[in-house]
Queue: 4 jobs
Job 1
Amino acid sequence: MTKHLISSADLSRDETIAILETAVSMHDLQRREVKKVPTLRGRTVINLFFEDSTRTRSSFEIAGKWMSADTINLSGKGSSTSKGESLRDTARTIDAMSVDALVIRHQASGACHQVAQWVRASVINAGDGMHEHPTQALLDAYTLRTRLGDLDGRHVVLVGDLTHSRVFRSNVITLKTLGARVTVVAPPTLMPSGIGAWSATEGFATGWDLDSVIDGDDPVDAIMMLRVQRERMSGGYFPTAREYTVGYGLTRERLGRLVARNPEVLVMHPGPMNRGLEIAADAADAPQSVVLDQVSAGVAVRMAVLYHLLAGDESARDDAERSVHA
Amino acid sequence: MSRLLVKGARLLGADASDLLVEDGVIRGAGSLGSERADLTIDADGLVALPGLVDLHVHLREPGREDAETIATGSAAAAAGGFTAVFAMANTSPVTDTAESAERVLDLGRACGLTDVVPVGAVTKALEGAELAELGLMARSRARVRVFSDDGHCVHDGRIMRRALEYIRAFDGVISQHSQDPRLADASACCHEGELSGRLGLPGWPGIAEESIVARDVMLARHTGSRVHVAHVTTAGTVEVIRWAKAQGIDVTAEVTPHHLALTTDLLSGYDPVYKVNPPLRPAEDVDALRAALADGTIDAVATDHAPHARHDKEHAFVDAAFGMLGLETALAVVSDLLVRPGLVGWADVARVMSSAPARIGRLQGHGLPLQVGNPANITLIDPDREVTVDATTSRSLSRNNPWHGRTFRGAVVTTLLRGAVTHTTDRELTTLTESEK
């Protein structure tokens, strides 16, 4: 297993599946009355968050605590200028305390990649700018596999602000790794530059017209709506919220057409949702919605990631398996 | 020492000749075997070029003397074969008055390793709103002729127009940092394309440069003034400049060694040493820039030497400072990547790294042919010497060197500024000049 988890591309198909299968055990543990296992006793996990986060930070914290790691949350001071302590100094200062893992969320793309070259600890990317969010992609895959089983050949559609989305960048990698067919949909202004060449290399489809994807030849197994920040309007990415919703929102009417094609279709959203903008309340709360399952999977998947990265040697892993299954 | 004899140098890479220097001026050329001299430099096998001139450096003094000083920057310049450098105005305080320009000039003279020529700001404090005292800077002892808000684009069309009109009175030139701030804002740091999309880095599209260059050449035509395009990076800009020159518009352009050699894919590891403004471009642009330099569309090579303290480069990529070192490595890059493959000859190097920049900057006493009567500003080059770049041994105070570990063929051996040795790797010469002291 890789030492760091910076990009979803760091994980092979076998490694991805191994993490997801471990997450099943962890999820069982989550349903027990006493949730703590000694797997990572004596290990120290630092959650270093330069950017606000509720669900990702709390789920990493709970994951560490249930595995008996000493988990400490630190709020890094966001350095948007070249003033203040450098990222390298911040990272090396914490690393000097002999920590085992640094879980990092940073507003700058590539920050985790850079830190990994400066420290001895394992670095886990909890979201870096517009780049990647690999544990989100894993928990999305976990949620999908729980409902759909094997993802080979399944059709997953991602809709929304692809340009600024790390969830998109990690998901497209993990979904392809697991054999799913992926279509991404956005207005041209919210498509990352160079996506034509990129999608050709990586083998996913792109489109500007959501309805033609919904009504196309290829029924949708899951549709993942990405958050659209309202500030994008002032950036000229699209004219009004109303126009966005008409073009790209998961409205009740669109959900109806999806369900008509495939009653088992899953509705996903990484949160936080802008109800009424990219997703209608009726869709968010529909029986097809697995939004809360995604949140619930977050802890189990992050436990599995910590386990595979930190409980590195075989004997530790055997002990861990025993303690989980005991 | 009053008489210096350079023996057997190949002038502009052609025939070997001796050069006799007296009191800083070339007094004899040709076969001067019998001449006596106080100091003789054995230049057998070396190429002699007129001292190199760099239109675009950042020396950081005043304001950021922890990153570079005029003294350390001058030493780096001399080591790179430069006898004159144009020091950009984006210091703290900004070079936007006659007094601040004269101060830079005087600090450079006191150091004496290279002629430091101040560039004046176009607008006060580089804010793009009101003209700086262009005329007073031109009339000062510093004789400022090149004006630039480099680091910022003079994006307001009306300000650019007035500046171009105004500097006609003293034959000035505006060196424009071409970056439409609406198309590429301050966060833009990666060539906009597939890689910026994948890496999630704010894109810096070529059109942000090209649209400003297109406007500026039309303003130059309209005003009859001179515009110089700093650090050209795209094939599209090359097309615009080629068209403008064909129309007879008085436009000149420079390209940096890094944009001639390094490509955008280097950013895939998020290493801030490769963060530079404008950004590294794809190979197609690099090829177009090389061809444009060879055919004269681009007039000059300028380093955009941009030293930064280590901690200013050790931030997340988008937060790290823009810029890379260039003075000590420029000639080696040009030699290895352009001269050796035959894209340009040594006479072309003399043009793009000495005579053209001196002419664009209206700098007297530099960029002149190695002929009797001209100042003895001479750069001696060993075209076959291999040098591996080691960032830790730089004369610069900074270490943001993108060439670290790379080996180039072609090295500056000795630099003469008005007959004085300002740099040499020649051991014998080092011993002689040391004993003089």
Job 2
Amino acid sequence: MKYLDEFSDPDLARSLLRQIHAATTRPWALMEVCGGQTHSIIRHGIDQLLPDGVEMIHGPGCPVCVTPLSVIDKALAIAARPGVIFCSFGDMLRVPGSGRDLFEVRSAGADVRVVYSPLDALGIARDNPDRQVVFFGIGFETTAPANALTVHQARRLGIRNFSLLVSHVLVPPAISAIMESPRCRVQGFLAAGHVCSVMGTSEYPSLSEKYGVPIVVTGFEPLDVLEGIRQAITQLEQGRHETRNAYPRAVPETGNPVARQMLADVFEVTDRAWRGIGTIPGSGWRLTDRYREFDAEHRFDVSGVRAAESALCRSGEVLQGLIKPHECAAFGRVCTPRQPLGATMVSSEGACAAYYAYRRVAG
Amino acid sequence: MIDFEGWTCPAPLRDTPHVVAGHGGGGAMSADLVRHLIVPGYGDAGGTAERDCAVVEAGGARLAFTTDAYVVQPMFFPGGSIGDLAVNGTVNDLAMAGATPLFLSAAFILEEGTPLADLGRITAAMGAAATAAGVRLVTGDTKVVGHGSGDGVYLTTSGVGVVADGVEIEPRRAAAGDAVLISGDLGRHGVAVLSRREGLEFATTVASDTAPLHGLVAAMLATGADLHVLRDPTRGGLAAALNEIAATARVGVELTERDLPVPDGVADACHLLGLDPLQVANEGRLVAFVRPDQADDVLAAMRAHPYGTGARRIGTCVAGHPGMVVARTALGGTRVISMPIGEQLPRIC
């Protein structure tokens, strides 16, 4: 695909790898924030080609993985109600709630549909005025503008049978939470390029400064990831800790002003629980009062839903970069993509699933 | 060290007490349903489930026998219809045992309200496909279910063919050293169908690759080569086909990623939809395991056949990592090509 294939060129990748090897004089631990980057690293075997001692810690940037169990249980409860059409991105369907997943709710008769855009769900609502249509609005700053636009449209068009089950999360507060963890080993970040293409880069220099870490805004193709790693290691070797943009073809400094304006209209900052990590203050978005009638949690009373995580699952430690997926005793044994204990094993962007799918042959 | 050997589901079929969509995805869930519920239910009357076609002896002849159900949505898609699939798919299941397909049956499950014109288009497509494949549709059945109980037309076809003496093509014969060949590019059928699926329509020039492959197989056999394994990578794609062969024969498979032929239109659609082209269905391709010293002859014969012009070698069968398929990436790393589980789940972003 034009503008993508160019960023997978093996010769250029080898050249970048040579530069990384030449620049590296000691061990460094970098965290790629976004699950898409984790996927790319494992998919292309990039982690195997880095200098010994350069470790990639897989961050919490998989929206499916960090959506808390209580929200998933609420989704299951809403989806199971008569008259509801529950729409979701595909990879949320197999995320286990406390008891079952959306696939099972569907096999028991619920109307659960996979859509590629929340606007498709709004179209379904328009075409089914006697049904309640709910879209599962999860994700980072990346997926939020489309959800904001959809709610905005629903209000403008007067489509009252549409609502959004919101569990949006934000990257900068997560970086703070990781850096303030007493067990933190992260020395530099590859920030999530597509988050920054919406939000811009202005939130990050203060984090670089406060925590003394380089933050390199990074894309997702192999060359993008390698360039992000190269810049982060170069900074570390030179004792610098700055925010730099290694993905300028998609990330203007100011992000996308139109999207940000829409987000500011529809969403407000709230505390948010992250699956496996816990509640991070100011780390999420919820609908503002103006749009409260489109909040599925408000429309369907699901406040009584309580959830408990599997005691065996260590996805929280994986998401914080404290252990690698295969260091969890459940990995590949009682926890597989087939029977996931935690969400990191479900989404193809989840660190555990990426390890399971793409891990090189041991030895 | 990760124990890959131990990576099977410890509690097959306990994921859910009900049938879910993934049981029909052609991946691990489908395989477990057959292996742990359907075949055991048959008891002594059953066979093995190692491949899509049985080879049995009857009246002194070696017969290949297969059956296949078609529930594709939509029924018409670029490059074909459920009718083409129902004939070619069953012909191909016979061909993958090295059989010459002869006779087919067809059973229709029709939903009330389905336009007869649609049914007419489907039967005409079946007739044309059967004629092209040189097989005859000799028996069948028709049932009607209530409106809302089906998706228009479901089709089941069974097929019978004969296998020549000396032809022993089966998954367990895959051997270390074998060359792994593919007859053409990957993912066309799955992408063509997805492009017309309700709610997902997108513009693409990709058409289904649906085609009968027994002529291609005959050309490969005519080289005199000892073909070890043939498989059509349908549901679950190349990933499922190779994992099944690797598991059955207890061998490993090593692919070279840059040699995997994925057309631009398929790669683009998969990129946008978050799908792995190696897990996308094909309906006119075969993968072959062939002795290395015979691979060049077989490849030449394949390329000379209209359904094998894009044939190429994609990898090697190895003794290491039995049951596992591995690809060397363009950057020089490796990745495991795992067995798809159930339905492919589009990624969120």
Job 3
Amino acid sequence: MNAVLDAFIALLPAWTLAHAAPLLVVSPLLSGPIALMLTRGKLAWAWALLISLATLVFALVLYSQVMDHGSVTYAFGDWAPPLGITYHVDTLNLLVLLLVVFMGVLSLIYGLPSVLREIAPANQAAFFAAFMLCFAGLLGVAITGDAFNVFVFLEISSISTYVLVAMGGGADRRALTSSFNYLILGTIGATFFVIGIGFLYMATGTLNMADITVQLQGKGDDRVVRAAFAFIFIGLGLKTAMFPLHTWLPGAYAHSPTMAGVFLASTATKVAFYTMIRFMVGVFLPGSVFDSAILLLVLAPMAVAAMLICSVQALYQANLRKILAYSSVAQLGYMLLGLSMGTAAGVSAGLLHMFNHAILKGGLFMAVGIFALSYGVRRVEDLRGLGKTMPLTAAGFTVCGLSLIGVPVTAGFVSKFYLVSAALERGWWWAAAAILISSVLAIFYVGRMLEMMYLQKAPQVDGKIAKGEPVSALALAPLLLLAAANIWFMFDASLPKGLADAAAAALLGGGGL
Amino acid sequence: MSWTPELGLILLLAIPLGGSVGVLVFSRWANLREAATLISGAALLANVVMLVMAVDGGARPALDLMHVAGGLSLNFTLEPLGAVFAALASALWLINSLYSIGYMRGNHAKDQTRFYLSFTIAIAAAMGVAAAGNMFTLFVFYEILTLSTYPLVTHNGDEKARRGGRIYLSILMATSIGLFLPAVIATHFIAGSTDFMPGGLLADQVTPALASVLLLLYAFGIGKAALMPVQNWLPNAMVAPTPVSAFLHAVAVVKAGVFTMLKMSVYIFGLDFMRTIPAAHWLAWVAAISIVLASLIALSKDNFKERLAYSTISQLSYITLGAMIATPLAALGAALHIVMHAWGKITLFMCAGAIYSARHITNVSGLKGLGKSMPWVFGAFLVGSLSIIGLPPLAGAWPKLLLMMGATDPINRVFIGALIISSLLNVAYLLPIPARAFFAKAENEADGAPDAPAAKAPMLTVLPPVLTAIATVALFFLIGPILDFLRPVFESGGMS
């Protein structure tokens, strides 16, 4: 596999290799306005897909470079850090970049039929433009080595997300309030974050993340730095939908256009989670800047609360995408729990769960979207009989759903296994118990949907099972690919696990805090 | 390519799965489809017999299937206990398949392809449970068994079936993922693997307190063993067609549960260590209470299949009791009880199904006077009942004897009392059924119910229970070889 990749990369022109890092962000960023000018929906889609495939190439180039050299640093305009802005790719954000790029490509392939249906023709090009901006923003957050740059890209991705969510307003008016909700909370989060960056700049005189770490060393107890930490923690917590700052998420995921829901559910909070790891254990130094007890006393309880409370909330939702959205908040709890352990094993397990959750939740949102397109499915009881009428989509949904529960032979099991092991290693038996209780709750909310699909009879019109719109192969293929990935990564998790392990080891050394 | 024990292990899964492909391919031609089931059943039995002979010769065939994350692996190692379970399940599956054909056709059941397909997958899963070389592998196949039997339980598709199925699935999944899986992961965490080790993987590696916690997780997490209070799924699963009930009760599902319980006792904790764990003694009490309580509930049930269901719960706890007392004799008795109870219970279920096929009677009180028109069925029922009660010369006598002999320590003597009470209760809830059929006057003779004289049970629903009833007699006399086969497991580590 790596040999094929190397052969492929050898074919690329030299400038793509030298500038892969900036191209990865700049090309989708510039493609957004161009997509808008193309004015026709299908044309804009084709353009966006082309660019996203190009970013895939750049991401693979970065992958091979990181594999060869350990990390890649790109200084803009050759202004050496800490003066200029740098892009920095190591094993930690490489995993996130690959995830975002792959999910971006898959969402685009998946999304065409649903966008043509849900978005007014006049707005379709604008939708793809906003999508590409969001895509670029997320990649930018993940790749940059400059703290202020993180804020800029965070805003690019957030503002375009508000637009994407609001575009669901044509089909579902609640999208507008959801988008507004998200806008208010997202802006508060971004403001907190930028205030924190301001304090950091005040204390260290630098914005380069690696340099900040250097400056912070030996600074001792500094109230400004502590304030910076608090602001950044809360700001990123909001973006990550850390319980109880998650209230914007269910609405935004449930009422947005189908394609936006798929993409956001599998990438947006993941990137925010990455940023949180980057700042908490990368930039700040646990133990010197903040007391590592905060992990145990603040982060871990919130993570456990999310895992339990939001899983229960998912049980009582009628709207399918709301179920998935609440489950997402609960799953973010798993990831944050991994981080809160403060050990290499915990962070690695959290990252692995981030990866697995992205591929399984993306698949679930895709399947629900296909159901909605074909049969207008919105609520749990609308799933009746779909196991028979739409067997392939239902099968994809089932595999991803089992992975969400964490049933062995799916990827979801692997990351939960590592999380439990990490918790036991840390001596946190209560955390292991919370993971298991939350998994049992998942059995019930996933089981409820599966039962409707496979055991209830399809609703009949005049004695015949209603016929839905045929499923587009374009929409089905990415779903089945993700379902297959959910099984594949059970048996060979070496790619995400290797990257997550390397990242955690680089951040925390062998042991931990 | 000639047959080797390692190939035999692959065939354990490959034959039933091949059968399921056959069922799918021939789904339109009912006779060919049933032929696929029967041929794979016969081939599987032949394969298992060869494996049993290999294991008897001292072989312990092993096979690495694949490595999963975190040092977990799926692998097979066949030892005597597993070989016995595989032999039992494959033999009964063949008989049960014959019976299914008679029953499903006789009752004009729908969706028969799905039915046979689920059956083949379930038996493959049961084979996986039997041959599993570590607890993780066993867990994976245990879950597949739950999932593949779910469509069988809900086969009738009505509201009642769905409700029963929901309870079935939610209790079994919740206990297995919530308790069993954590126990497996904790075992892996403590011992570095989950391999079944002669003498016990965890023996003397953990403190008695921690061992108690783990043992409680295992005992209640293995929901298929139906230890009270995790028994409720079993009566609820009675909504299924009778061949499924027979499959659940005798062939695979509950037997996989108690088999797992025994494996855990023998190979994870080790019998010597088990006797030092405080929780093992508490669980023996729970099992003893389950035995008596379930028998009492059975006595109060008029619905035929429900009465048998509670009888099963009671009988399963015999095995759990043996696994918890954990003297070599008691554990040996428990292992024997897996086999002997299966033959008796499948007889009873198949008789119940035959009666239902002929007369659509589901209540015990409706059986009066039927003995005259269905002598073979009730004769088989009587033999099966006597075997479960434990009367010589029937198979069920041996395990009870061994269990009692294994419980002679002063601390365990009370359990002998539970076994005796249970036997008396068995008499009280089982024997009235054939007695009523043979000696009571039929009520509807006077009413002249229209279909009373004409309805006959399909041939294929009568022959199998008669065969299994004969087998309970035969097994009584075959005890010597079976004991010789099993004894090494309980005396000195089995696998080495």
Job 4
Amino acid sequence: MSSYPRFSVSRRQLVRGLLATGAFGATSHLWTGCSSQTKAPGADNATPASSTASLVMGVIYVGPKDDYGWNQAHAEGAAGLSSLAGIKVVEEANVPETTAAAETMRSMIVQDGAQVLFPTSFGYFDPHILALAKEFPEVQFLHCGTLFEEGTHPTNVGSYFGFIDEAYYVAGIVAAHTSKTGKLGFVMAKPIPRIVRTLNSWMLGARSVNPDATTQLIITGAWTDPVKEAEAVNSMADQGVDVVTCNVDNAKVVMETAEKRGIFCSGNGVNQSAVAPKGYLTGAEWDWTGVYTSYAKLMQEGKTLMNQGIPHLYLGGLGDNFVKLSPYGAPVGEAAKADADRAKAGLIDGSLVVYQGEIKDNTGAVVIPAGTEYKPGHPELEKMDWLVAGVQGQITG
Amino acid sequence: MKLRWPMTLMPRWRSLLEQLLIPAGAVIVALLLFGGLCALEGHNPLAVYASIYRAAFGSWFAWQNTLVRSAPLMLSALCTVLPARLGLIVIGNEGALVLGGLLAAVTGLALAQVPSTLGLLAMALAGMATGGLWIMLIGALRHFRGVNETISSLLLNYVAIAFLNHMVEGPWRDPSSLNQPSTYPLPTALSLGSFPASRIHYGLLYGLLACAIAHVLIQRTTFGFAVRAVGGNRRAARMVGLSPGKLTLVICFLAGSCAGLAGMVEVAAVHGRANGTLHSNYGYASILVAFVAKQSPLAVVLVSMLLGGILASGSLLQRAHDMPDATVMVLQGLIFLVILYSESLYGQIPWFQEQRQAADDRAAIASTPTLPPTPQPSGELHL
């Protein structure tokens, strides 16, 4: 026993090691040829729900359905769907972006007979949706985002997304009007383009009525981090910020903390006025009911992604009812309402474009030259990695 | 009793039954409690049971669903199991997993040109080395500086996750991954395949192999004996010439390399790249697996499958019974609480004890009749 702790390699250990390596090699590649030809879906569990007249739609959420944010907005849209005749909705919440997502989609297709799936989280797309779409070419996969690329992705996949930054622009106007200090705050989950864009639109809206307004940016780094979100609001309130908004998965904590500190807040995702009855000004809300309903109607007419009856990219803003604003709260004055309503009307009829040159970033560099305008669907906006003038903070690549 | 068992087998048979029936009974009690809750909520408990069974183990389709979910748990649980045999409570599984996955992905990208078997082997080694070194760091802090390994491993999880996010959102980011920051995608040649005619990837095989190897290592080798000796009594082990420091470092490295391999499997079999989704709580779930499995590598396999089945049935409970998504958490919590409670029943039920007691008595009479039964250390070691 005392001779034990010597870590030299004996012949026996060498043989063991070689065996293990061999086993690894055998498993890792010998059968890849077979694995690509997947078996007919659910052949062994047969009987997919009989395809009656009803259209079965599956909706998948990454978190709980009552999260005061992203998932709740989709759940409200799905609730609108299930009231339609001839539509059956199956739902599953709290599905992580792992193999669990693939298993849920597969079960919805095989066990519930779903012909259309709405997996609503960004991370579901690659690899899970792409893999399942190849395996089930007759099922339509509609993903919330802008990730679909013509030619690269299967034809039974589509993307839908709303230009929620238009609603942030209007909310920014309301915020700048209501703020006494001119200091606004923004709590951000992750500095990715679609989130940065909401901040920039908010700031542009605010500066359109108060050119001296500033926005303090705090990035939490996580989609949900209640502790950091509360800390962010507290520290901004300490610095004299009197209106905060956010773009995180659920805005409840930000709204609650703002209300507790006696400052104003502007919502994100769904209507959060119940959480902050005194200080809630307005909010940039998703409005998926209309989107889901129009998909359902098109499909009941027999149109699909595959027969080109439904566009693969379905995008819209305030004018197309993809997004909306929460009803104005009590603190919002008449001047603010008038300016906000005017901007809203302009965005709806297209006479107002948020990203119209000349726009400088917060280091003074021109990012959109004079005379150039980027309409909401412009690809340049999808790559946004700068902060507009007036934002205090920075994002690094 | 007419049937006569050989004298030595009889008590073993009873205790084996005890080992099997107590956990099984615990699961049944938990299901009864859960059924009661379902009935309170207005759902027919029998229909709910039928759904749970159907979704988890009722068909090949369901089995695949269960096994796919349990694969990462097996590897990752070993990260807690192995150090536990040495008397350390390490819960750094999540950190070792995400770092292993990240480094495996980067290695795969760097070796995109080499033959795929070599590339996958290199990825696996990179994942194992990274995870291993990460947990070895925890072991070293414990041994040399006396830092509590539970706290340090828990806190280092946050460091690892932050590092993962920093690297995939910064230096190692594929610039075209705009709204889902990720590394560049791995070439398809470097994807870990699935078992023929199934959707279960080879990660399951690695999990089963790792658990089997860990079992042999702990129970059948001098190394394992030494580990259990240190786990049983560190000072006594040192007095007989074992080196707890070396053993701590080695066992922590092995533990971390299992979790790191789990990360490599997630990258190579599921995601095809590294990004923030690597942190999806497999590491945390597997701590539960390790404790419910009472730190036994073989039991880890069964408990992982049980947890996989619970997760799989949670899906059907939502879809077929319109139950809230938290239902599966309630079921999981009930099962694990009752199993943990049932541990206090070992040795308390007379029927399981009778024969052993008789056999013990006979053995005792042979030597010293008045010697009281000595409590044994967890490592079943007699020094």
